[in-house]
Automatic annotation (TrEMBL):
Keywords: Amino-acid transport, Cell inner membrane, Cell membrane, Membrane, Transmembrane, Transmembrane helix, Transport. The lineage of its organism: Bacteria, Pseudomonadati, Chlamydiota, Chlamydiia, Parachlamydiales. It is a multi-pass membrane protein. The chain crosses the membrane at residues 12-31, 37-65, 85-105, 125-145, 152-172, 184-209, 216-234, 277-298, 310-332, 338-357, 369-393. The keyword Transmembrane applies. The keyword Transcription does not apply. InterPro entries: Amino_acid_transport_2, Trp_tyr_transpt. One of its GO terms (molecular function) is aromatic amino acid transmembrane transporter activity. Its main location: membrane. One of its GO terms (cellular component) is plasma membrane. This is Tryptophan/tyrosine permease. It comes from Candidatus Criblamydia sequanensis CRIB-18. GO terms for biological process: amino acid transmembrane transport. It is found in: Cell inner membrane. It comes from the Bacteria.
Amino acid sequence: MKEESKGSLLGSILLISGSCIGAGMLGLPMISALSGFIPSILMFIFSWVFMTFTGLLLLEVALNFDYDVNLITMAGKTLGYFGKIVSWVSFVFLFYALMVAYTSGSGKLFSEFAHSFFGFTLKESLGSALFVLFFGLTVYIGTYAVDLLNRFLMLGLILSYFLLVAFGLSYVDSGNLFFKEWKVSFFALPVMVISFGYHNLIPSIATYLKRNTKKLVAAVVIGSFIPFLVYLLWEWLVLGIIPLEIFQKGSQRGEMVTSMLHDIIGSNVFVSVAESFAFFAIVTSFIGVALSFVDFLSDGLPLKKTWLNRLAVCLLALGPPFLFSIIYPNLFLAALEYAGGFGAVILFGVLPVLMVYSGRKSKEWRNIIVPGGNFVLSIVLLFSIFIFLIQLYQAVYKDVGA
């Protein structure tokens, strides 16, 4: 029994870590390079602490129900019909924004693949189409197919990450790490926040660990801290290798960070490892979010569980992001910013605070996970609003600048 309980806790930790680590890593250095390595460390700390607190707030809500719930149900029970609608809309917005990011990134990735490995030019739109068609078929088949594929992909992601770090260590220039531009450092928060997004798993993990509070708190804290360490090493490596001017030029051209690394290092072996890492990062994120989105729509729409209806739901989940990424290319980073600054902040920041605040006024509210009372709730809420306003400013500024 003791081994089983340890295994379930380890599994929960890895599940949380795995849901965080993915395609967001390709965007993190691009957005944080403008502020520098040292300011980025502070922003990462803010993001991790913030998302850990919001994760624990959601855990508190989940543990105050005696039955299995999801985020939509929790919002409806604690905040009423309005809360249910806001959570549903936020979920749809978040899923679509992430799907646009991954689909857009896949087109550029497949185009670079074709050029590097086969020597011919592949249109990014065709690359995105092939990507969505193949991996969308896996999502259509169902959870078992996605789970089986994801095991191999996660293994590839882990191996390519460590190979990338090992190859790149000798190319790090410590002089690149001392650049600091504090006034723009906060603009990285939306992408950093979405890189710690695991909150939709919390109701399931609460059930999986049989509502054991100590294990659940450990799973949330440790499971999110592992990506924090992975991101810091990744930032140190990439920002240490790529000078600021290369980041600025590459960002204007919509290049992937792995492509910029190739331009600096030039090794064919390194190119293969870097592009493999980007591939695994994009695909693991895509199939995980796509499967969750399809299941979410299937549960929310009044449709019978048939293969034809599942095909329709898959088209509804995958079609609009594909078309959007074709009409508006190079949206990978912008879509991640919108997902984090708007979708994740509302769904995983504002709503958990309001749910806990509403729930704690009830005499039936037994489990209090997050200490500090209304003061801590206020800090988390204010930080959520701060990130939302940062993204709103960026959205308006970019539109005006365009």
